């Protein structure tokens, strides 16, 4: 705006309450992400610039932001000892500090804490930030390089963050947390274990039954051989039991 004074002072804002995924620095117009995790799509952001003169003139434009999920391997998680709601209020300043210390363009993909924290957003003093970095050639910087550079600048980064949050700040790198196991997967695992146990028990029963049958048949055979040639003749019936037919009387004709 070529005007001077209040007529040349512009304030920027996002229209239609789009601040769940994005926010904007009202003084510079810089747009940054709040939370776009798992949302590989294109967002259409309507941005308004308004001067502060008596007539308050405004202008609007649409900014298209395409979120690509192909960069998952180069995401780095930074952990701050700050409440999630406090970090969200200063996300643009945190981004500026990271860019200054890493000397790369930094994009904060998501700021979050645990599931309980999402409901009570000021209960735990731990916030996780997923970020990725790009060099001057707009090429993604490998995650290992980002981690290495961050550790080199860790002390300087924490000092700058202390000025933003007005309190001691610790910042650390953490591996992205594993996705929580879904109830469906848990049910499948439990069912598989139960089926395996049932199959093992059934096979054990079959083996034990066969062994008992063979042992019993061997016992019957041994008993039959013992009584062979004895006056009291015995034989096994169809059920495997010994039946004695009594002593035969000698008759003289």
Q: Give, in spatial order, the strands making up the sheet with the most strands.
A: 7-8-6-9
Let me know the largest β-sheet: 4 strands, antiparallel
Number of helices: 6
Head-to-tail CA distance between termini:
144 Å
Strand content: 15-25%
Taking all residues together, what is the mean pLDDT? 78
Question: What is the radius of gyration?
Answer: 39 Å
* Mass-distribution shape: elongated
- Would you tell me the structural class of the helices and strands? alpha+beta
CATH architecture descriptor of the largest domain: 2-Layer Sandwich
Subcellular location: Membrane
Pfam families: Cadherin (PF00028)
Organism: Galbula dea
GO biological process, one term: homophilic cell adhesion via plasma membrane adhesion molecules
Description:
This protein is an alpha+beta fold and 253 residues long. The chain has three domains: 62 residues, Immunoglobulin-like (Sandwich); 103 residues, Alpha-Beta Plaits (2-Layer Sandwich), CATH 3.30.70; 29 residues. Helices cover 35% and strands 24% of the residues. The protein contains six helices and eleven strands. The strands form four sheets. Strands 7-8-6-9 form a four-stranded antiparallel beta sheet. A hairpin with a 5-residue loop joins strand 10 and strand 11. Helix 2 packs antiparallel against helix 5. It is elongated and about 125 Å long. Keywords: Calcium, Membrane, Repeat, Transmembrane, Transmembrane helix. InterPro entries: Cadherin, Cadherin-like_dom, Cadherin-like_sf. One of its GO terms (biological process) is cell migration.
